[in-house]
Amino acid sequence: MTARRSNVLLVQPRGADERLRDIFKAFDVNCDGVLSRKELQKALKYLGAIFPDFKAGRCMHHCDENGDGRIDELELDVLVIYASRCGYKVK
Ligand SMILES: [Ca+2]
Ligand SMILES: [Ca+2]
Fold first, then answer.
1. DSSP states along 13-40
2. Interval 66-91 mean pLDDT
3. Is residue 76 part of a domain?
4. What angle do CA 87, 44, 15 make, to 5 degrees?
5. CA 56 to chain centroid
6. Could you tell me the pLDDT band of residue 10, with boundaries at 50, 70 and 90?
7. Distance 25 CA to ligand 2 centre (A)
8. 43 lies in a domain?
9. Which-ligand-closest: CA of 67?
10. Beta carbons of 63 and 82 less than 8 angstroms apart
11. Ligand sitting nearest the alpha carbon of 59
12. Residue 35 forms beta bridges with which residues?
């Protein structure tokens, strides 16, 4: 486990972050339990991202820890914290 990963895990999502998590989960449109880059892109667009395709790429870079191109349940924690840090809020 890298230092970066353990730092991320020190911050547990709660409150507003829980609502962000619900949004991301709602955008798992094919209900396979993971967010594809396309699904992530749509979620970010909903959250007000100006360049959702670009931002989805950034999110994947930061949050897709096993590099399979999808955000799974564990990586969702990292995504929620990252999105919250980037200023995404549920309207
Ligand atoms: Ca999916
Ligand atoms: Ca992944």
1. --THHHHHHHHHHHT-TT-SSSEEHHHH
2. 94
3. yes
4. 50
5. 9
6. low
7. 15
8. yes
9. 2
10. yes
11. 2
12. 71
